[in-house]
Specification:
Belongs to the ribose 5-phosphate isomerase family. Homodimer. It comes from Teretinema zuelzerae. By secondary structure, the chain is of the alpha/beta class. The protein has two domains: 2-135 and 219-235, 3-Layer(aba) Sandwich (Rossmann fold), CATH 3.40.50; 144-214, Alpha-Beta Plaits (2-Layer Sandwich). It is 29% helix and 25% strand. The strands form three sheets. It has a six-stranded mixed beta sheet with strand order 2-1-3-6-12-13, with helices on both faces. A four-stranded antiparallel beta sheet has the order 8-9-7-10. The radius of gyration is 17 Å and the shape is globular. The protein starts with a helix and ends with a strand. The model has no long low-confidence stretch (mean pLDDT 98). The protein binds ribose-5-phosphate. Residues 32-37, 93-96, 106-112, 115 line the site of ribose-5-phosphate. Ribose-5-phosphate (R5P) is lined by residues 32-37, 93-96, 106-112, 115.
C-alpha cells in the first residue's frame, strides 16, 4: 500500500508540474534518491522517451539515481558541468519526515549531502511522499542523519551530545562495518528526547568540526505532494 502511495504522489507531482509548465523541455532538473523519488525519475524518463520532454539536463543525487538515469536514458551531468553551471531549475525528491512548516529530515538512504547541494541550488524544490512522512515535530522519531568525516567520529558524537542528541553510527546492511556514503564519509543518526527547532539545529550542527552536512532541510521552502491512504493528494 505504501509503495502504491509513493508512486501516486511521485507521478501526480510530475504530471501536474509538466501540465503547468513548471517542468519544461530544456530544463536543468535535480533528481532525488530513494523509493519515492524513484517513480518520479521513472516518470520523467517516460516523458523523455515519448517526446513530451526534450533537452532535459539532469543532476542525480546518488549512485542509485545515476544508475536509474542511465537505464532510463536520462542525460546526467555533474553540478560543475558546463551544461548545469552550478544551479538548477527544479529539483524533485522524497523525504523522511515533513513538519507542518515544511521543514524536512532527509538522508534515510545516506544521500543527504548531494541532495542538499542540489535542492539548495534549485529555483524550485518539490517533495513527494506518502502520508506517513507528515509529522507534527522533528527530532524524536526519525533519527537525523549527520554525514561526518570518519576521523571525527568520536569528537562529533561528543559535540552532538552537547546539542542534546544521542548519536549512533549507522551500520551497513549485508556489509560488515559502518555505512560509507557515496562521498566516502560516515553517518551518525541522531535522536533527541524532545522536539527540536530544525532551522536552528541545521545551523548549529554544521558548525561542528568534522561535520560535512546534516539532514535538516529548512532553508528552501518545498512544494509538497503527499498521497494519503484514501488515495487523495494533499498539496502543500
Ligand atoms: O538519503 C535518502 C533520501 O533523503 C530519501 O529521499 C529519503 O530517505 C526518503 O526515502 P524514501 O522515499 O525511500 O522513504
Amino acid at each position: 500500500m505504501k509503495d502504491e502511495l509513493k508512486i501516486l504522489a511521485a507521478r501526480t507531482a510530475v504530471d501536474e508540474l509538466v501540465a503547468r509548465g513548471r517542468i519544461r523541455s530544456g530544463m536543468k532538473l535535480g533528481l532525488g534518491t530513494g523509493s519515492t523519488a524513484m517513480p518520479a525519475v521513472r516518470r520523467i524518463g517516460e516523458l523523455i522517451a515519448d517526446g513530451t520532454l526534450s533537452g532535459i539536463c539532469a543532476v542525480a543525487t546518488s549512485f542509485q539515481t545515476t544508475i536509474a538515469c542511465e537505464n532510463l536514458g536520462i542525460p546526467v551531468y555533474s553540478m560543475n558541468s558546463r551544461q548545469i553551471g552550478g544551479s538548477l531549475d527544479l529539483a524533485i525528491d522524497g523525504a523522511d519526515e515533513i513538519s507542518p512548516e515544511k521543514h524536512l529530515i532527509k538522508g534515510g538512504g545516506a544521500a543527504l549531502l548531494l541532495e542538499k547541494i542540489v535542492a539548495y541550488n534549485s529555483a524550485e524544490f518539490v517533495v513527494v511522499a506518502d502520508g506517513s512522512k507528515a509529522v507534527s515535530s522533528l527530532g524524536t522519531k526519525f533519527a537525523l542523519p549527520v554525514e561526518i568525516i570518519p576521523e571525527a567520529r568520536i569528537s562529533v558524537a561528543a559535540a552532538l551530545k552537547k546539542l542534546g542528541a544521542d548519536a549512533v553510527l549507522r551500520e551497513g546492511v549485508r556489509k560488515a562495518g559502518p555505512v560509507v556514503t557515496d562521498n566516502g564519509n560516515l553517518i551518525l543518526d541522531c535522536l533527541w528526547a524532545s522536539p527540536v527547532q530544525a532551522d536552528e539545529m541545521e545551523y548549529e550542527i554544521n558548525r561542528i568540526t568534522g561535520v560535512v552536512e546534516n539532514g535538516f532541510f529548512t532553508r528552501i521552502l518545498p512544494s509538497v505532494w503527499i498521497a494519503r491512504e484514501d488515495g487523495t493528494i494533499d498539496r502543500r
